[in-house]
């Protein structure tokens, strides 16, 4: 997405990536952390990566550095240009409340309802001209609703109510406890009335984008965007 790779966003130049907010430690949300720690360093980042997330993130980050120790030492001591700082991390294990603030953005963390995983968070991002809520993985969450007033953008996970019918009973129990159906998402959006609703982390299970869209539309009449990789939302 950066100009170096054919994109239009210089802010996303890999070497400039310095902050990351993790919602929870499930592998589908953290398996790319090694790449985020190491690749920007190899490509020129010379400051530590600042990580914010649930308990366990410090151990995870430390484990990644340990796992790649030989790679790091080779890059530091071989002929490749490398700085001694960019692969390191500064980790803040969070609780609810404001966890980050600078001149551009304020980030508030809140607990959502991801089944029995207590240390699972959503994030509210406030800038001078936008208020954006990122749900994280969650079923219907009253705590999320509490933080969802006057949103410009609501980015919310979803699974297909149509595809759900194809799952076995044990998986139905799991997904209903941990995630939000396309019908439920329409009801949430009807309540919160965001200017834009972005359906993300989509579990299709064979259903189509149109099926997701129609389910949401049963209750929400505002703008609905089905997320895709590399999507930019103004």
Describe this structure in words.
The structure is a single chain. This protein is an alpha/beta fold and 234 residues long. It folds into 2 domains: 1-94, no CATH class; 96-234, Metallo-beta-lactamase, Chain A (4-Layer Sandwich), CATH 3.60.15.10. The chain is 31% helix and 23% strand. The protein has 9 helices and 10 strands. The chain has helices at residues 27-30, 33-42, 57-67, 69-77, 142-146, 161-164, 169-178, 182-192, 209-217, and strands at residues 19-21, 49-53, 89-93, 97-101, 106-111, 121-126, 131-134, 153-159, 196-203, 223-226. It has a 7-stranded mixed β-sheet with strand order 4-5-6-7-8-9-10. The longest helix has 11 residues, at 57-67. 29% of the residues are buried.
Count of spatially separate domains = 2
* H-E order: EHHEHHEEEEEHEHHHEHE
Query: What is the number of strand segments?
Result: 10
Q: What share of the residues does DSSP label as strand, in percent?
A: 15-25%
Looking at CATH, the homologous superfamily of the largest domain is: Ribonuclease Z/Hydroxyacylglutathione hydrolase-like
Strand order of the largest sheet: 4-5-6-7-8-9-10
From the 3D structure, determine the CATH topology of the largest domain. Metallo-beta-lactamase, Chain A
**Overall residue-averaged pLDDT value:** 97
Q: Which shape, going by the Cα principal axes? A: globular
CATH architecture of the largest domain: 4-Layer Sandwich
Quaternary status:
single chain
* Number of distinct helices: 9
- Given the helix and strand composition, which structural class is it? alpha/beta
CATH class bucket of the largest domain: Alpha Beta
Helix content: 25-40%
What is the CA-atom radius of gyration, in angstroms?
19 Å
Low-confidence stretches: none
Q: How is the biggest beta sheet arranged?
A: 7 strands, mixed
